[in-house]
Amino acid sequence: MMVRAQALAEIAKLRGDALVVAVYSSAFEWLEISPHPLNFLAVGAMGQAATNALGFAIGLPDKSIIVLDGDGSLLMNLGTLVTIANVAPENLTHFVGYNGCYEANGEHPIPGRDTISFAGFARSAGYKTVTEFRDIATMAQELPAFMEAPGPRFASLFVQPSIKPELDYALVHGEAARKRFAVGLATDRARLAASR
Prior knowledge:
Elements (H helix, E strand, L loop, with lengths): L3 H10 L5 E4 L1 H10 L5 E3 L7 H11 L5 E6 H5 L3 H9 L4 E7 L2 E2 L5 E2 L8 H8 L3 E5 L2 H13 L4 E6 L10 H5 L1 H21 L1
Parallel strand pairs: 1-2, 1-3, 3-4, 4-8, 7-8
Antiparallel strand pairs: 5-6
């Protein structure tokens, strides 16, 4: 099992200028690990992180899109795996923090936590590249090749439940956060257009 913040730090090293959709506890940790105007935070939208990321992947096919999902969140919308695999956006990388509980809601266990395989779900759905990371050393070694593999890509991150962060919803849903993302996206699009 990994510490989620350490796993997220490995992803941050390879982020580049990717647009990142993060959900719940991962979102608050991600803000500290990788502050960036292209952080789209899906806190309060349980089950919708991957769907939001798919929309960005379709609308911005020239942009790398990363989604930091949770196991409980993904369970609420498993059908999105089939939809993503069917659309097959090559620019989408889907990480699921697998800690076996609804961490943001009191660490209640998710159904089937000892038997289900999110990597198995993604593989059956048709994701092109699927893996699992259970320890930080292996993740650090294999993550660069995974991020370059054919997409959509999916990885289960076996992580421990973390200390619950202070859930400052104004920070992620307030006007400043929305404006920062809108300006960041417009700036990114303008930079891309100028480079063509």
